[in-house]
Amino acid sequence: MTHDAQPYPTDDELAAVAAELVAMAAEDNAAAPRANSDDFADQLAWRRLTARHADRLTEILDVHGWPTADRFGADAARAAWLIAQHADRQLDVQRRALSLLERAVADGLASPRDLAFLQDRTCVNDGREQLYGTQIAGVRNGTPTPWPCQSPESMDRRRAEVGIPPFDDYVAQFS
Q1: Measuring CA to CA, which residue among 50, 48, 63, 52 is closest to residue 16?
Q2: How far apart are CA 54 and CA 57, in angstroms?
């Protein structure tokens, strides 16, 4: 098996994990507005939710490796990525997910676009410059501004290589 997966899970086991991942992503999406709430209780609820999801993702990674679409379905694969993406306070989980996702992408089993977003998120959380400009630091003079990025002059070329629109088009959706 590839991507650190244990051998021979049953179809029912894979389906149960897939359903769980999709449910966690739905819960994440519903709670996401709490992340930047003015209410500290909302922020704390968001942090607890993402920590609980990251802990469960770690258990899934231990048993199954990276949840690829060919084994778990596209929705579950995307859900695993979202959970890893939002594990901001558990950098060890993000790093591990990034490593497994890199191998899945190299094997043609996962999205280079998802990898780019997780790579940028992990870099920012690790205090390093991002590569693709996917992580927005804030809004200055009405314009979304990315966290520092390596070689910003070639950022749009790198974005195109992984299927992400040019930065100006990307940030226009936030305006």
Answers
A1: 63
A2: 5
Token look-up 């991507």 returns 3
In the block, which residue shows the tokens 């929705």? 75
Q: Which of 148, 147, 122, 139 is nearest to 174 (CA)?
A: 139
Query: How many CB atoms are closer than 10 A to CB 13?
Result: 12
Whole-number Å distance between alpha carbons of 21 and 97: 14
Strand runs labelled E in 34-121: none
3 phi and psi angles, rounded to 5 deg: 60, 40
Question: Is residue 153 exposed (0-12), middle (13-18) or buried (19+ Cβ within 10 Å)?
Answer: exposed
Q: Read out DSSP for 90-113? A: -HHHHHHHHHHHHHHHHTTSS-HH
Nearest to 77 by CA among 87, 86, 68, 85: 68
- Write the burial class of residue 20 (CB in 10 Å: 0-12 exposed, 13-18 middle, 19+ buried): middle
How many Å apart are CA 130 and CA 97, to the nearest integer? 17
Query: What residue ranges of the chain have pLDDT lower than 50?
Result: 1
- Read off the pLDDT of residues 9-27 as tens digits, 9 standing for 90 and up: 899 999 999 999 999 999 9
